[in-house]
Structure formats: C-alpha cells, structure tokens
Amino acid sequence: MKTIAVIGTNKAFNGYLFKILDLMKVDLNTFNRYMVKKENNYNYIVVNSNTNIKNIFINGKYCLINMDLADYKNSNIDVFGNIITYGLGNKNTVTVSSIDDKDSFVYCLQRTLFCDDRILEPLEIPVKMKFTNEDELYAAMTGITISLIEGKDANNLYIR
Fold it and tell me: What is the pTM for the complete model shown?
C-alpha cells in the first residue's frame, strides 16, 4: 500500500483531504507528524504548515508544500523528493482560479509533473465542490494533485 505523511495540518484540512482521496478511490496508509519516522520513505508528504513543528527530516517520492501558510526560511523541516508547491500564488506548481462563492473553482496545474509511467502536462479542471474555508480549499488542491498522480480522472469533479 502507498503511504502519505501529513505534517502541520489541522482537522478541517485532514478531513477534507481524506474525503477527496476516498471519493477518488485513492487508498493510502496515513501517518501524521507524530508517527513519521525519518528512516522511512513515503510516497507522499504533505506539509500544510510549519507552525510549531521542529526538526523534521523526511524522504518522500512527492512532497506537496503549502507556500501560503509556512515560513520555510525559519523552519527546521527538511523534505526530500519531487517538490510540488501549492497555494493561491501564481508561482506555485498547483493553484486555483475562478473561485465562485465557495461552490466551485478551477484547479490549475501550472507545470509539468513527471510521474512513474507518464507525464502530467499543465491543465485546468473546473471543479464543483463546496468548501467552507481556505483549509478545505488547500486540501482540495492536495487531494486532486495526488489523485492525478495516481492516474485518477479528476475531470468534472463534483463533491457536495
């Protein structure tokens, strides 16, 4: 089974992330920051914030990092793997646009991702998904990205 280490998140983020992964039928064994072992290699590492997190050294195949919620210049987090940044800024690998009243948005993969057996080209996917706050929006970006890497079809994603 593939693994995901989730670091620096909160309940709203976690719940929504795993709701999306479940709907997309992505099965991952989950580890939180208290269970992460630095000697392990994880398929996915998600760093949603570095607040109150000290001295983490971790290896992963894909490392998804929220660039909006963290100050990585002053952190003690070292992650190694294929870095995928996400957030609301246009310089991130993954971002969103056309946010409509917490009811829909456009998921934007800004750069090419090289996966095991294929290449994901930049794309935009309209998503009908109700979300209540930014945590859920960040979780959606992360869940959709992992789903795409896992070869799932996220076109016309509809979550209520």
Answer: 0.88
